[in-house]
Design a protein that fits this description.
This protein has about 375 residues and is of the alpha+beta class. It has helices spanning about 35-40, 85, 110-120, 130-145, 220-235, 280-290, 305-315, 350-365, and strands at about 25, 50, 50-60, 65-70, 90, 95-100, 105, 155-165, 175-185, 195-200, 240-245, 250-255, 260-265, 270, 295-300, 315-325, 325-335, 340, 375. Strands 1, 2, 3, 4, 5, 6, 7, 8, 9 and 19 form a 10-stranded mixed beta sheet that branches. Strands 10, 11, 12, 13, 14, 15, 16, 17 and 18 form a 9-stranded mixed beta sheet that branches. Helix 3 packs across helix 4. The chain is globular, with a radius of gyration of 21 Å. The structure holds pyridoxal-5'-phosphate.
């Protein structure tokens, strides 16, 4: 049994004193207001980018330097840049919201800062001070605030990422890195509302093995999940669910979302963080909110056989996937080679719906923020 890694959510607070001054270079050709308004009407997900981005450089011996806010646009890379060969790359994803009273807030950004640092450590990359990470988000939100949708479902999706930029083909941790933050105006993740998704159980592929990079938010994990996701689509499913890499028996998570099961006594179960699962901030928030409601929440392994049997017997009433982008996605049908089963009645269960609403209401400033998760930016 491997010991669980330290949870990024439970890590000590950011050490103070690490600050960088950002040089602001406003985009000389920002998108005209009428054109921006047109792009914000139906932005979808990850297609509409704002006028600016943040860049910060790192060099061994020099540390982090040259923090800038500048025009969004292509970056130039040496073809020998290490990331293009050995994939030293990590990222984060979080949202900024425009509240009804005009405030602009982020949801639990310090948790993303801590997880980014934990991912960097796993990938042998330098640690960006958490305060610099938070400041970089604020700077970008401030300059691009007009790009935050004011619609009920809209938000500004922030994408901090870092990669090895050193031009060198030797295999070792690079000596130079580039950190960027881009922002994308997004609408509802699912056009036409939240609908139950169909899951494909991958028998052939796994996502992460013990000792591997499953708990780090790195691009490589996503690259490794795409063949399985393509297989899911071929079988008429929306998403793939990965089994553990050792026994191919226990449920790990989806390619980019964690998973929860809801039982007939109102309790919840989610697989434990043993190093192969990404410690989702949505996952952590749901555990807390469910316990606030007096529900029992267990972090324990759930086998595919148990999932199938409990769904068929009716002991398991609901299942859902969760992550920042889509918040909560109900799971209706689960398909395996040669058979399938349905969770509950295949629709959106009441516990799933109520947890989704509670979380979204906190994020949107409509419900009391008892845990200090909502951070004001503007
Ligand atoms: C980002 C991610 C999640 C969800 O994390 P949140 O912090 O809730 O957005 C879950 N699984 C994987 C593999 C991820 O990369």
């Amino acid at each position: 049994m491997t010991l669980p890694p330290p949870s990024p959510m439970g890590a000590p607070p950011a050490s103070g004193g690490d600050r960088l001054d950002f040089e602001i270079h406003p985009n000389p050709r920002p998108v005209a207001p009428a054109e921006r308004a047109a792009r914000l009407v139906n932005p979808g997900f990850g297609r509409v980018f704002t006028d600016h981005m943040v860049t910060i450089r790192y060099a061994e011996g020099k540390g982090w330097y040259d923090a800038r806010v500048e025009a969004y646009g292509p970056i130039s890379l040496d073809p020998a840049a290490a990331v293009l060969h050995y994939a030293q790359e990590i990222f984060e994803g979080l949202k900024a919201y425009h509240l009804a009273d005009g405030r602009v807030v982020m949801f639990r950004p310090e948790a993303n800062a801590r997880r980014f640092a934990a991912s960097a450590e796993r990938m042998a990359m330098p640690r960006l001070p958490e305060q610099v990470f938070l400041d970089s988000l604020r700077e970008l939100i401030k300059i691009d605030r007009e790009w935050i949708p004011t619609t009920e479902e809209g938000s500004l999706y922030l994408r901090p990422f870092m990669f090895a930029s050193e031009a060198f083909l030797g295999v070792r941790p690079a000596h130079e890195y580039l950190y960027l933050v881009t922002a994308s105006s997004v609408g509802a993740y699912f056009a036409g509302g939240v609908k139950p998704a169909t899951m494909w159980i991958s028998q052939e592929y796994t996502r992460a093995a013990p000792g591997g990079t499953g708990a780090a938010k790195c691009g490589g994990n996503y690259a490794a999940s795409l063949a399985a996701q393509a297989e899911a689509i071929e079988h008429g499913c929306d998403q793939v669910v990965f089994l553990d890499a050792v026994r191919r028996e226990y449920i790990d998570e989806l390619g980019g979302m964690n998973i929860f099961f809801v039982y007939d006594d109102g309790s919840l179960v989610t697989p434990p963080l043993t190093g192969t699962i990404l410690p989702g901030i949505t996952r952590d928030s749901i555990i807390t909110l469910a316990r606030d409601e007096g529900r029992r929440v267990e972090e324990r392994p759930v086998s595919l056989a148990e999932w199938r049997a409990d769904a068929r017997s009716g002991r398991m009433r609901e299942a859902f996937a969760c992550g920042t982008a889509a918040v909560i996605t109900p799971i209706g049908v689960v398909r395996e080679p040669g058979s399938e089963f349905t969770v509950g009645d295949g629709g959106t269960g009441p516990v799933t719906e109520s947890l989704r609403r509670t979380l979204v209401d906190i994020q949107r400033g409509r419900a009391e923020d008892r845990h200090g998760w909502v951070h004001r930016v503007l």
